[in-house]
């Protein structure tokens, strides 16, 4: 029997009344200084179906009501001995990640800007680098403007360009303290009103997936 991993916490909380994958009971496995939220799992892989993803998210979000979980990626299946090994080998980075996200949630933001001027397809390495620089400059500009609008309300940010979209799109994940959440949303509302040339897609609060630096469970 394998284990399906949902999230990791470093405090003791009651397990909410919720079933995990394959309708197995959710339980907490104590390993060292950590509590790992798991359920028993038959097999070695989990199909990425909508129903399975919903269960994965629902379990983690139940623990968000009680503490700040460090989430495992969807589909993390491992044997118990290998889980003990993973926790032991990565204890320092897991502790650092938990400390970083403590009391926080992740808020997602996608910003779609007007299209960049279209030139011919790059024909040389230099032209390719120039096109790439224009994209990175746009990413930096969008990020700077968003950062200024929520200054003092964001603990950390993760910024990237979304590839192969009709218009340039910048993805931003913000780590926000729970008690700053209403103010954060209010500041973003003001930015949306000001930047009418941009399209915004907001989501969250989510578990802090974008701010896990520890290696993925194999």
What is the CATH architecture descriptor of the largest domain? Answer: 2-Layer Sandwich
Query: How are helices and strands ordered from N to C?
Result: EEEHEEHHEHEEHE
The CATH superfamily of the largest domain bears the name: ACT domain
How far apart are the first and last residues' alpha carbons, in Å?
16 Å
Q: Low-confidence segments, ≥5 residues, pLDDT <50? A: none
**Sheet with the most strands, sense and barrel status:** 5 strands, antiparallel
How many strand units?
9
What report would you give on this structure?
β7 and β8 (169-177) form a beta hairpin. This protein folds into 2 domains: 2-102, no CATH class; 104-210, ACT domain (Alpha-Beta Plaits), CATH 3.30.70. The strands form 2 sheets. Strands 1, 2, 3, 4 and 5 form a 5-stranded antiparallel β-sheet that branches. A 4-stranded antiparallel β-sheet has the order 7-8-6-9. The protein has helices at residues 50-64, 80-89, 91-101, 125-149, 181-194; strands at 2-9, 27-31, 34-41, 70-71, 77-78, 104-112, 156-161, 169-177, 199-206. It is 34% helix and 26% strand. The longest helix is centred in the middle third of the chain and has 25 residues, at 125-149. It is globular. The protein is an alpha+beta fold. It is built from 5 helices and 9 strands; from the N terminus they run βββαββααβαββαβ.
């Amino acid at each position: 029997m394998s284990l399906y991993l949902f999230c990791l916490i470093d405090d003791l909380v009651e397990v909410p009344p919720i079933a995990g994958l394959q309708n197995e009971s959710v339980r907490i496995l104590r390993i060292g200084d950590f509590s790992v939220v798991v359920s028993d799992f038959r097999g070695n892989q989990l199909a990425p179906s909508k129903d399975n993803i919903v269960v994965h998210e629902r379990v983690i979000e139940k623990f968000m009501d009680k503490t700040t979980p460090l989430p495992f990626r969807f589909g993390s299946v491992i044997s118990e001995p290998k889980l003990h090994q993973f926790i032991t080998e990565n204890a320092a980075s897991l502790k650092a990640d938990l400390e970083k996200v403590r009391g926080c949630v992740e808020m997602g933001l996608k910003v779609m800007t007007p299209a960049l001027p279209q030139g011919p397809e790059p024909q040389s390495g230099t032209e390719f680098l120039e096109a790439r620089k224009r994209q990175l400059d746009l990413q930096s500009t969008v990020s700077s403007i968003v950062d200024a609008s929520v200054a003092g309300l964001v603990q950390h940010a993760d910024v990237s360009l979304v590839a192969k979209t009709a218009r340039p799109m910048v993805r931003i994940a913000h780590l926000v303290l729970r008690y700053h959440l209403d103010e954060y949303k209010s500041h973003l509302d003001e930015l949306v009103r000001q930047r009418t040339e941009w399209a915004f897609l907001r989501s969250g609060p989510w578990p802090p997936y974008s701010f896990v630096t520890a290696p993925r469970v194999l």
